[in-house]
Amino acid sequence: MRSAASEDADAIEEMESNKSRDLGIVAACLGMSCAFGAAIGATSGSDAASEYFAGYLLEQSLSVDNLFVFVLLFEYFQLIENFKPILLVFAGILIFSSYKLISQGDSDEEEDMADNAVVKFCSKLFDVSDDYDGDNFFTVQNGVKMATPLLLVLAVVEISDVVFAVDSIPAVFGVTKDPFIVYTSNLFAILSLRQLYTLISTAVGELKYLQTAVALVLGFIGSKMVVEYTGVEIPTELSLAVVVTLLSGGVAASLYLPDDSKDEA
């Protein structure tokens, strides 16, 4: 029989192997995304390429798959003139989201998922068992069919995807109105999300200033949309530079500035 230490060592080795694989996939997707952006630049000009990379970076940072919602939006708002008024609503959503993220601060308290609105709603719809039953969404206990906690997890994740889309969709429209660039930048941004999740989930505790950086990005894009609605044009290159600076600054600050909470501990 193998020792516990040996099993732990194998588990650690497998995690490191998976991390290397995920990094490779992310790098490959990034390479394809950059190559596609370069192709856009060669065929459509530097302005289109700048819009693509700005949209790609926004969607990658917000990490949401919104293609279906984009289809509905483009089908409903077929003309830019008809679409323009809704941008003010989008701008308001982004600015409000920015405020909410910043006002949350650096709370270290973990959210009690029992108080989550989706969990409460689902719990009222059907009985939920206390334990999981493998990968089943429903189980039978004492002759009664009940939902497992796994179904609650699925519901919260799917609802969260819709909620996060409220930020992500307005953000990319603040960069470009070109349907082709919106679709492709979002498509390439989500290629590596599965691998990025496994990497970021292990590092998110170390990136304490990243949430603030994302909040500032949302605030900037929202403000940009309001300004451009008045007729003042802000270059896409400037928007891209601001987004890159804020996100990289948030990561750098998290890595190099001292963590007061750790010092107190």
From TrEMBL:
<keyword id="KW-1133">Transmembrane helix</keyword>
<keyword id="KW-0472">Membrane</keyword>
<feature type="transmembrane region" description="Helical">
    <location>
        <begin position="180"/>
        <end position="197"/>
    </location>
</feature>
<feature type="transmembrane region" description="Helical">
    <location>
        <begin position="23"/>
        <end position="41"/>
    </location>
</feature>
<protein>
    <submittedName>
        <fullName>Integral membrane protein TerC family-domain-containing protein</fullName>
    </submittedName>
</protein>
<dbReference type="InterPro" id="IPR005496">
    <property type="entry name" value="Integral_membrane_TerC"/>
</dbReference>
<feature type="transmembrane region" description="Helical">
    <location>
        <begin position="86"/>
        <end position="102"/>
    </location>
</feature>
<feature type="transmembrane region" description="Helical">
    <location>
        <begin position="53"/>
        <end position="74"/>
    </location>
</feature>
<feature type="transmembrane region" description="Helical">
    <location>
        <begin position="239"/>
        <end position="257"/>
    </location>
</feature>
<dbReference type="GO" id="GO:0016020">
    <property type="term" value="C:membrane"/>
</dbReference>
<keyword id="KW-0812">Transmembrane</keyword>
<feature type="transmembrane region" description="Helical">
    <location>
        <begin position="209"/>
        <end position="227"/>
    </location>
</feature>
<feature type="transmembrane region" description="Helical">
    <location>
        <begin position="150"/>
        <end position="173"/>
    </location>
</feature>
<dbReference type="Pfam" id="PF03741">
    <property type="entry name" value="TerC"/>
</dbReference>
